[in-house]
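Marked as duplicate of an earlier ticket. Keeping the data here for the record.
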Amino acid sequence: MALRILIVEDEPFSAQKLIRMLSELIPDGQIVATLDSVRSTVKWVQEFPAPDLAFFDIQLADGICFEVFEQTRVVFPVIFTTAFNEYALKAFKVNSIDYLLKPLKEEELKAAIKKFNDGFYSRPVSLELSSMAATLNQLTNSFKSRFLVKVGEHLKMIPTEDIALFYSMEKAVFVKTSAGQDLALDFTLEQITGLVDPQLFFRVSRSHIVSLSHITDVVAHSGSRLVVKLAVKTDGEVMVSREKVTAFKGWLEG
């Protein structure tokens, strides 16, 4: 029976190169789909039978591939590919998952496939998105500088320096801009925590992430909690949860 292989890669050249290499290393392999985004991958995984093996590029057209694991259940083995440096590669391998450095080398790809054939990938992949995304950003010193939001029929880019607050309400996530606009985002707060610079943004509670540059005051509250005052008007108080007070004070001190 042919080995069913899924490829998730947003660079056409890289996808074709991987397909060509796999055709030589796994002659009886069958590429069941080639996808280029988090959204299309989640949809495919939910609608089609699981492949025998998958190759995921880390950075996709609409986000980081780790988001797939948060949005749907992945029950098949995955080999990750990344253009990041070897230092990042070694850090990711702590998670006991194979990461191949781009440009892909035939001997490394062959070794990863051998591990698969030897039963190395016997358990479904399980990832903690926020920690993986945070590790990725810390190693590359690359955090999101803007977020894309939909305003009516238009797409608008919001620079992070214009964001005063990220917040969740009724299972949706919003950004409040320095101009006081409330705009919906296609991210969870957990994802955002790993994507923004932790020196500039702090998650004060389950429902709020505040921007350092937009804080105007911090007021003591009952129960050893704190209330954060921002330069923009908010619906209700932005409260620092009791368990985060110490860390929040340390963050303010720098």
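See parent ticket for discussion. The mean pLDDT is 84.
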